[in-house]
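User: I'm preparing a small set of examples for a lab meeting where we compare how different chains pack in three dimensions. I only have the primary sequence for this one, and I'd like the structure in token form so I can line it up with the others. Please keep the answer compact; I'll paste it straight into my notes.
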Amino acid sequence: MAYAWRWLRSLLFVGQMYLMMLVFGLLYTVPALFSRDWAFRAIHAYCRWVRWTAGWMVGLRSEVRGEVPDDEVLVASKHQSFFDIIIIVSALPRPKFIMKKELLRAPILGWYAKRIGCVPVDRGKRGHAIKEMVKAVHATRQEPGQLIIYPQGTRVAPGVERPYKIGTGVLYSQLKEDCVPAATNVGVFWPRTGIYRKPGLAVVEFLPRIGSGQPVDAFMEELEHVIETASDALMAEAGFKAP
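Assistant: Understood. Below is the structure token output for the 243-residue chain.
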């Protein structure tokens, strides 16, 4: 009975979450057409809404730890579910993503992604995709903000190993900016797929920045070590036991 009740609450939460994406998107459309700042206001307002409703509807509280960057940096984050996107975007003042090209076709989401300067990539083309990604990032550098990339390329469930892709290292080398790693335990409570949401404390933690100028191989090794170590610690804190 308890599980069924939590599942029903999760279903209601997910339903209203997508409904409110439409509501917030339409509410801010006109001012966002004229000002990129209003597009960021819309996105921040929506992310705060999702975090707030997750807290009282399904008991999933959320917290941001570490020093939140507000300058021009590359943010390389662990990605476990949609909720870590919500948390990280709510914290960063001007977030923009490296995102898969297919998302541009999503109603509301795709338009706002383009409006804030997100960079779409075709993940199926590998080497060509990296070149196109770097080119697109340079083309959008007149739109300042924190560029977010997921080094593993996709959502990765807790306890699952997946290699870090070289695209993050290429961007780090090309942009000549500091990189701020970010860890999370969100997947313990909010799975990659499915409806059920567990109560608890979801955390995104911004880790000490890695200064620009390192060799790519050394950077990638350090990046993977700090993100995976911190994410494992956060998941252990949440009660997750790796298989």
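A couple of notes for your slides: The helical segments are 2-27, 29-34, 36-57, 82-91, 109-115, 127-139, 167-175, 216-237. The beta strands are 60-65, 74-77, 95-100, 119-121, 146-149, 179-184, 200-206.

User: Perfect, thanks.
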